[in-house]
Design a protein that fits this description.
This is Flavin-dependent oxidoreductase, luciferase family (Includes alkanesulfonate monooxygenase SsuD and methylene tetrahydromethanopterin reductase). Residues 22-344 form the Luciferase-like domain. Keywords: Flavoprotein, FMN, Monooxygenase, Oxidoreductase. GO terms for molecular function: monooxygenase activity; oxidoreductase activity, acting on paired donors, with incorporation or reduction of molecular oxygen. With 385 residues, this protein is of the alpha/beta class. It has a single domain (15-370), classed as TIM Barrel (Alpha-Beta Barrel). Helix content is 41%, strand content 15%. The longest helix has 20 residues, at 156-175.
Length: 385
Amino acid sequence: MTEPKPRLDCAATGPLFNANAMKLGVFGLNVASAGALTTSPDRHRISWDQNVRLARMAEDAGFEAVVPFARWRGFGGETNPWGESFETFTWAAGLAAATRRIALVATVNMMTMPAVAAAKQLSTIDHISHGRAVLNVVAGWMEIEMRMFGVGALGHDDRYAQGAEWMEALYRLWTAEEPFDLRGKYLSIEGGLQQPKNVQSPRPPVMNAAFSTTGHAFAARWADIAFISPNPDKPESAVEQVRALRAMADARGRDMQIWVATSVAGAPTAEAARAYVAQYSGPEMDIGAVENFTRLMMGGTAMPDDQRAAMLRHVAAHIGGFPLVGSYQDIAGKIAALSEAGVDGLCLTWMDYERGLPDFIANILPLMEKAGLRRPFMDAAGPAA
């Protein structure tokens, strides 16, 4: 396959491109137990009506996006977390018709769907939503899921090489006005064309979460919104990671937003927040699911027993990402520090979305507004029907 020409920038007309210094997205709403591997009776369970209600709640509070996990199998154990999920393209299309202003993200593993299908499906969502569609592309490897799709084993760097061909095809499908052919090592397209074009011209935004050096190089080349994963024990790592990723993008003559996936547990006091997390990740931990997660997603871990126990508790409590745990003031301060480090947006998960989302809106969002991280939101369109 020929080297792609410098790609076009995405449209900057959708909800992700407003003036808020810190954008907000609800992450993993479509997946059971998205935020914690726990047997807690309050763990996240999913229904379509619940997803619509919570997406509208986030929209009415001014959140910029709802971002789904693309999952096909769970982690077993007692509760099989992530085992129940809504497929992300149809999920985003349904929410597009049920909302007015929030961005609807569809997530796809590039090894599981042809670029031709993804381009057309995302474009359809863009029309349903009148220009609010975003595509989140991933290249992760979970063997039991890949076997379901008949995908042969690919090494880490090979997955991103395949992804680069996939992205070239995607962008050409979104922008080409005449049929084209592409032939690469991993994919082949004859007479590729997609009509109608997207509402967002020249194309919708693309999001990517990749944390290796190869993954960040991929994101710097292809993504408009990319994720970093700061070390919670090393706050300065956020500055370092932002600086490195922006340098990769700058070298390609590009700019991007940088986001962080987070796990939120707030309370009036730090002690209450820590006790809450300790309960659902300690006595209520789904140990079988946590063990399976570390084996399937982290390659297993060899370490002393006390370190391993601490690691398992961390996985159980903060599978959704960077921990934002503490009093409401504590969390607002941590968010401000991430903003100071150059982070543009947060994807938020909770153990219990029914409790966590309204709690965040009532108690943390006003503190973010007071700190100048967000503007008070007024939806001119009014509430969703």
